[in-house]
Amino acid sequence: MSTTEPVEDRAAVLAGVGGWVPPHVVTNDDLSAHLDTSDEWIRTRTGIRTRHRVSPGMATSDLAVEAGRRALDSSGDDRAGAVVLATTTPDRICPATAPDVAARLGLAGVPAFDVSAVCTGFLYGLATAAGLIATGVAERVLLIGADAFTTIVDPTDRSTAVIFADGAGAVVLRAGRPEEPGALGPVVLGTDGTLSHLIRVPAGGSRQRSLAATHSPGEQFFQMEGRDTFRHAVDRMATASRQAVAAAGWSMGGVDRLAAHQANARILHAVADRLGIPAEHQLSNIAEVGNTGAASIPLLLAQSAADGGLEAGHRTLLTAFGGGLAWGATTLTWPKLSAG
Predict the structure, then answer these.
(1) Which stretches of sequence are listed as region ACP-binding (predicted)?
(2) Predicted TM-score of the model (pTM)
(3) Which residues are catalytic?
């Protein structure tokens, strides 16, 4: 698809939102039955009470399809000119999961591909979708963040098993004007590969496979250096947020809602404190769904829009941090949307 509309006059505008979590709920008491932990220990350190887990045989694509369908319904149009899936847990290494998701949504034939930026994947996906719209490749893009993170977490590792969970969130972006409600502001992105060891899955990639050796026990699971990750997460999200707010021409005091990656309650509070954003302006669902990776922000947006936490006119700041290390932030004024 091509367009004669000037690139500088085209913006990606939020037109629909939807989210879904698998029905299997795991409580802190469930985890305490086989881990050296307790409900109090988990709640005080992470802010999480429950999380959702895929059932046997369920994959990331199943989560993505349901969230994508709800976002399309919210937009009032089941069409999209491209599908972008942000995930760290594709159904398989090859091929990408997005084409399967597109086909199952009745969108076979459109460009569809995966984006991998761990918990920052949705922000990277927003920039990608905005680029597809700005260049005329698509008039409407379905962007989904979906992760079945429990499939790569060691169930015996207390430091990760209590935090990570499964879910999906999606948005529909359409071509529009920069001054419209829902138009994405400038997207701030960054990475630091010198710190990639802080968040990793050592086994399964080309480096380990090229050695023609079996991986060491535990290397097939997600690993994270918690203390250093905390520090970098707070610093990078706060810095990126300030840059995005300034680029949008806003002041931090004018931010009505903060939608940060739901990594850990302590991280969320620290970021908000750094930015001077009061508790009543912070969106959060971590207590009910945990850390859902790339699904975190779109799932939070969908649930907040449904429960009234997000209303039309709210100036909203989005920010995320994840493996890579990678981080990002952007802004938008929340538009009037149908529930998804």
Answers:
(1) 262-266
(2) 0.95
(3) 119, 261, 291
